[in-house]
Amino acid sequence: MPGPTRILLADDHALVRSGLRMILDNEPDLTVVAEAADGFDAVAALAETPVDLVILDIAMPRMTGIQAAREITRTDSTARVLMLSMYDNEQYFFESLKAGASGYVLKSVADRDLIEACRATMRGESFLYPGAVTALVRDYLQLVRQGRSLPDAILTPREEEVLKLVAEGHSTREIAETLVISTKTVDRHRANMLQKLGLRDRLALTRYAIRAGLIEP
């Protein structure tokens, strides 16, 4: 039988780490083998101690949890990452997933959700707290329930190029000149994107571009 999941726990508050460690170490299939007080120390500790799962607080000094997650997923192909946050924040949630995290747990309900989140992550599943089920995720699940085939990416590379320029405030003519296509083609791409994403206007497209990481908020 495989041993318990080895966990690296990173949070800049020692009391929080202590409480979370008690929750985790109380489970026979989970064990905290290393701790860190910031993202920089978490990345360094990972180089010294073999772990299966890294739990990162988002708001830490020196290097945030999201920055650490990017570094860990870039350099370590085996350790999985779970984010902890005080904030029910859609932007943090999407940034965490983009950084390679498998889940997002709110500290306010960590005593209820953290254990299941760890186990789900180690099963190769994603753990999402209820508030993180945004319109984008709901649309995706709706497609699954309808049994429709899902493309590898919602938008084509060309549509993403158009979307980025739309979100940056460029006019149809400017986009056409930049991409060396006709204004009619730009309009067709915009209409296709609105239909695919179930959105209504330029503002909604801009919000989607921010969530998708195509532009800075």
UniProtKB/TrEMBL annotation:
Q: Which InterPro entries match?
A: CheY-like_superfamily (IPR011006), NreC/VraR/RcsB-like_REC (IPR058245), Sig_transdc_resp-reg_C-effctor (IPR016032), Sig_transdc_resp-reg_receiver (IPR001789), Tscrpt_reg_LuxR_C (IPR000792), WalR-like (IPR039420)
Start and end residues of each HTH luxR-type domain: 148-213
Q: Does the keyword Transcription apply?
A: yes
> Which PANTHER family does UniProt cross-reference here?
TRANSCRIPTIONAL REGULATORY PROTEIN NARL-RELATED, TWO-COMPONENT RESPONSE REGULATOR
**Keywords noted in UniProt:** DNA-binding, Phosphoprotein, Transcription, Transcription regulation
Q: Is Flavoprotein a UniProt keyword of this protein?
A: no
Q: 4-aspartylphosphate-modified residues are where?
A: D57
Name this protein carries in UniProt:
Response regulator transcription factor
Specify one Pfam family. Answer: GerE
Which residue range or ranges hold the Response regulatory domain? 6-122
Q: The organism sits in which domain of life?
A: Bacteria
Gene3D superfamilies for the chain:
3.40.50.2300
